[in-house]
Amino acid sequence: MSSLKEEIEAADRKFMDRFGAGDFTGLSNLYTEDCKVMPTGSPTLNGRAATAKLFQSVYDAGSKKVKLVEEEVGSAGGDVIYSRGLYTFYLEDGKEADTGKVCCSLETCKWRTASLH
């Protein structure tokens, strides 16, 4: 049986693969319908369509790869899981474009909220 961290890391791999492939509909489907994404310096985004648009804009701005690293994963009770980690976006030439922290609450390994800073 896999650990919570392994399950979250498997979801992270799907996210990274879909971002790299430019599949923003598939990427946004990793989130719940009522997800909230909180990018730094911007208003909170609500729902899958806004999530897809956000990551499409990051991709269009030059980031073609993302790496997610989980630092902490745990149960918040019931079907809710939390994760805390780091993200790094990379340009097509492999140079680092942006890095920051991410904190998520998940329901059965679907992202419900995400904070990118």
Automatic annotation (TrEMBL):
InterPro entries for this protein: NTF2-like_dom_sf, SnoaL-like
Looking up PANTHER family in the UniProt record yields: DUF4440 DOMAIN-CONTAINING PROTEIN (PTHR31664:SF8), PROTEIN CBG16427 (PTHR31664)
Supply the SUPFAM superfamilies for this chain.
NTF2-like
Sections of the chain in a coiled coil: none
Task: State the source organism's domain of life.
Answer: Eukaryota
Name listed for the protein in its UniProt record: SnoaL-like domain-containing protein
Query: Which part of the chain is the SnoaL-like domain?
Result: 13-96
